[in-house]
């Protein structure tokens, strides 16, 4: 048996699978996010440990025999979070999360430093780890002086599981301290951010062993041992493993809290100026490129809170078969935007709202605005030479067939909907554990999911959505000029 643990932003998901990758059991445990100031987003690392304990307890209760056969654990997690430890291993302050934008000034300075983009392969975004440490150095110097190790969220959980400071390439590529082409920490990048190599964890590939479960936990969990903990991966790399996307030409689009358009790459070809992320994949000799928007289903959640209607109820306003674009334009920049704008200051906008418009029209505009933002990501990826002829569509937003048909038409590519079952980051983490323990062929371990339906672009509406997207694109610079 193998366990996949995904340290998400709102909770931890645990997935127990057998050696064929078949899901045996699942458990979840939530935890809060703190927002102590505008633009801030923090979490207590102790909450991740508590959630893991609760999820494991649930699996041990519901599947005791299967859990007792555990041989490997894989880890996935939210990227970019800065978890700061002192020399004794104690946490120095709450973890600063991926969606925290307080370090925009420091990010700009690092991004402008000579060689930083060339070595890291990416723009330094405010959400990345390096500018967070630069912010801590400036605003919390006593904390910065005590930093002995910086761990990403999943790797702090690994530290609790194993007692070792280890990270993987895919997660570490989002720090702005990794030479993404060489797949190693860069002394030059570390120096630019005022950091040292000894403050970093050791690095392994995601499909390689990355520690063993400590004796105390073997005893507490009733395991004979040993249990290998795989290197694992950042959430998107792990999700790609769960979806079977790790070869050139394979990709997926995710309508989750944030939005992601990801393409696997057999070679390293970054284009930082496009605001496309180029990161190491969780398997050796492979990279991936992705466009990221900071709010996808989060936009629908925001509208839900504002209108006092559940998201599922709002989604019902959009029919399964779409009839064309709304007259309302929506820029989905509730927390700023990454691809293609790299703009932490811009905010969301509704334009051309009529007195007769209500929840139905606003919901359609929100779904279209998110789809247009993902088209911007697709155009940025195409600008780097990436060609995607079809995509796997995943995430909670895909429960709305109308949203998926909108997205397929806006992107101009067929979208494959997987059959019901697991295919996300927790499954990818479990698959990485299987690879780390067995050394089996990745093509077999990480097979793509069964497809239940393919949603084709609506050729009869393509021109109308192209025109609507052009208006959408023209709105951003105007709002930027007015509001910032």
Automatic annotation (TrEMBL):
UniProt site positions, description: Important for activity: 6
Domain of life: Bacteria
Ranges where the Carbohydrate kinase FGGY C-terminal domain occurs: 252-436
PROSITE patterns: FGGY_KINASES_1 (PS00933)
Leader sequence segment: none
Carbohydrate kinase FGGY N-terminal domain mapped to chain residues: 1-242
Gene Ontology MF term list: ATP binding; D-xylulokinase activity
GO BP field: D-xylose metabolic process; xylulose catabolic process
Reactions catalysed: D-xylulose + ATP = D-xylulose 5-phosphate + ADP + H(+)
InterPro entries: ATPase_NBD (IPR043129), Carb_kinase_FGGY (IPR000577), Carb_kinase_FGGY_CS (IPR018483), FGGY_C (IPR018485), FGGY_Carb_Kinase (IPR050406), FGGY_N (IPR018484), Xylulokinase (IPR006000)
Pfam families documented for this protein: FGGY_C, FGGY_N
Keywords, comma-separated and alphabetical: ATP-binding, Carbohydrate metabolism, Kinase, Nucleotide-binding, Transferase, Xylose metabolism
Residues that coordinate or bind substrate: 79-80
Enzyme class, broadest EC rank: transferase
Catalytic center residues: 235
Keyword field contains Transferase: yes
EC number in record: 2.7.1.17
Cited function: Catalyzes the phosphorylation of D-xylulose to D-xylulose 5-phosphate.
Family assignment from sequence similarity: Belongs to the FGGY kinase family.
Full protein name: Xylulose kinase
Source organism (scientific name): Pseudooceanicola nanhaiensis
Native organism taxonomy: Bacteria, Pseudomonadati, Pseudomonadota, Alphaproteobacteria, Rhodobacterales
Protein encoded by which gene: xylB
């Amino acid at each position: 048996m193998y366990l996949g643990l995904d340290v998400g932003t709102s909770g931890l998901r645990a997935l127990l699978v057998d050696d064929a990758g078949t899901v045996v059991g699942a458990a979840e445990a939530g935890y809060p996010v703190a927002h102590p100031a505008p633009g801030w987003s923090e979490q207590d690392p102790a909450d991740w440990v508590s959630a893991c304990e609760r999820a494991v307890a649930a699996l041990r209760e519901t599947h005791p025999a299967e859990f007792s056969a555990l041989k490997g654990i894989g880890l996935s997690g939210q990227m970019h979070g800065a978890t700061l430890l002192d020399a004794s291993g104690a946490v120095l302050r709450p973890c600063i999360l991926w969606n925290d934008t307080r370090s925009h000034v420091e990010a700009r300075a690092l991004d402008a430093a000579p060689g930083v983009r060339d070595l890291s392969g990416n723009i330094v975004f405010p959400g990345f780890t390096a500018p967070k440490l630069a912010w801590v150095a400036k605003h919390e110097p006593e904390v910065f002086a005590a930093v002995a190790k910086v761990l990403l969220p999943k790797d702090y959980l690994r530290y609790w599981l194993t007692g070792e400071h280890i990270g993987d390439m895919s997660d570490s590529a989002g720090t702005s301290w990794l030479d993404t082409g060489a797949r190693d920490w860069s002394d030059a990048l570390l120096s630019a951010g005022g950091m040292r190599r000894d403050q970093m964890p050791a690095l392994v590939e995601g499909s390689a062993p990355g520690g063993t479960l400590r004796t105390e936990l073997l005893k507490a969990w009733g395991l004979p041992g040993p249990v290998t903990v795989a290197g694992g991966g950042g959430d998107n790399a792990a999700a790609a493993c769960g979806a079977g996307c790790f070869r050139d030409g394979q990709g997926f689009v995710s309508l989750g809290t944030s939005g992601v358009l990801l393409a696997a790459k057999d070679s390293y070809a970054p284009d930082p100026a496009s605001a496309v992320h180029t990161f190491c994949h969780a398997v050796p000799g492979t990279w991936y490129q992705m466009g990221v928007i900071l709010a996808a289903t989060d936009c629908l959640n925001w509208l839900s809170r504002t209108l006092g209607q559940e998201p599922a109820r709002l989604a019902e306003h959009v029919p399964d078969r779409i009839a064309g674009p709304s007259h309302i334009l929506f820029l989905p920049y509730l927390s700023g935007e990454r691809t293609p704008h790299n703009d932490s200051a811009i905010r969301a906008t509704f334009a051309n709202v009529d007195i007769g418009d209500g929840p139905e029209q606003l919901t359609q505009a929100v779904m279209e605005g998110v789809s247009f933002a993902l088209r911007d990501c697709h155009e940025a990826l195409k600008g780097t030479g990436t060609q995607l002829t079809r995509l796997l569509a995943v995430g909670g937003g895909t429960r709305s067939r109308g949203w998926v048909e909108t997205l397929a038409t806006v992107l101009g590519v067929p979208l494959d909907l997987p059959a019901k079952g697991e295919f996300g980051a927790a499954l990818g983490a479990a698959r990485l554990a299987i690879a780390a323990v067995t050394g089996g062929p990745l093509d077999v371990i990480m097979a793509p999911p069964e497809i239940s339906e393919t949603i084709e672009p609506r050729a009869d509406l393509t021109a109308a959505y192209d025109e609507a997207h052009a208006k959408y694109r023209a709105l951003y610079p105007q709002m930027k000029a007015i509001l910032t």
